[in-house]
Every structure is written in structure tokens, then in C-alpha cells.
Amino acid sequence: MKIFLTNNDFHEVGFVGPKFTWCNNKKGVDRILERLDRCFLNPVAISSKNWFFVRHLAQVASDHCPILLNFTVQQASKKILRFEDVWASNKASMAVLEKVWRRNYKGNALKILNRKMKKSLKALYFWGKAKMQNLLSLKKELLFQIVELQLK
Q: Which InterPro entries does the record match to this protein (predicted)?
């Protein structure tokens, strides 16, 4: 079986539930429990955008536990925007913020503040991406050079 699985590049899917999927339905020392039932996927299925797992269900009318293959499509998650310190060090970022804060928004004071904060962060993100994308790579390069100089 191992040779077949290896030759065909099949991989076992993780499972949730009882460890054993088969029982000989005997009691005491004669009872035998085994994990006979398994689920395998090929690389195409594994590399898809789905998340797979097997659930071992309760044994009811058979000596085998039914197994259920679950899969869910992974949703593209929203990117979390965080304030970058490099934005504060550039005077041009102030103009981006002033433009956002000059806009008029409707709602109570708390909603307006929340909206302005969100819009500010989003505006800084896109401004930084457009204007300062090379700055982070330059920072990494300079840090690497500093480490090199310290090691000499």
C-alpha cells in the first residue's frame, strides 16, 4: 500500500473524531480496534484553494465508522493595515493626512472620527505603496550592511 501511495503521490488527510474506524464488535480482551478507513488526496487537490479535513463519525449500524470529507473554500482575507513608522518620518505624509481630514463626513462625532481614522490609514497605505515602496528594501539593505560592518 505504501508503494502505491508513494508512486501516485497520494497524501493522507488529517482527521477529527475517534482514532479508530473499525471494531470487530467483541467485548473485553477479544475486542480489536483499528484505523482501517482513510482518505487520501493527490497534489492537485492539496494545492487547490480548499481546506480539507476528515471527520470520523460515530459507529452506528456497521463495524466501521463512517468518514466524512469536509472541505471549505478559503476566502481571501482582508489585509490588516497597520501604521508604518516610516510614514511619520516623511513630511509628505502630512499632506495626505490633511487631505483626508479636510473632507466632511456625516454622522455622530465618534463615527466621523472612526471614518477619518480608517480613511487616513488607507490613504497612507496607498500613498506609501506608490511613493515609498523602495524605502523598505533600502532599509533592509542598509541593516544588512550595518551587520556586515559590525562583523568585520
A: Endo/exonu/phosph_ase_sf
Radius of gyration over every alpha carbon of the chain, rounded to an integer in angstroms: 29
Q: How many domains does the chain have?
A: 2
Q: Are residues 89 and 69 in the same domain?
A: no
Q: Give the tens place of pLDDT for each residue, 46-77.
A: 888 778 889 999 888 889 999 999 888 766 66
Q: Which amino acid is at 141?
A: E
Q: Which domain holds residue 141?
A: 85-151
Beta bridge partners of 72: 51
Q: Would you give the distance in Å from CA 112 to the centre of its chain?
A: 32
What is this structure's pTM? 0.45
Closest CA to 138 of 65, 71, 89, 74: 89
Tell me, what amino acid is at 149? L
Is residue 118 situated within a structural domain? yes
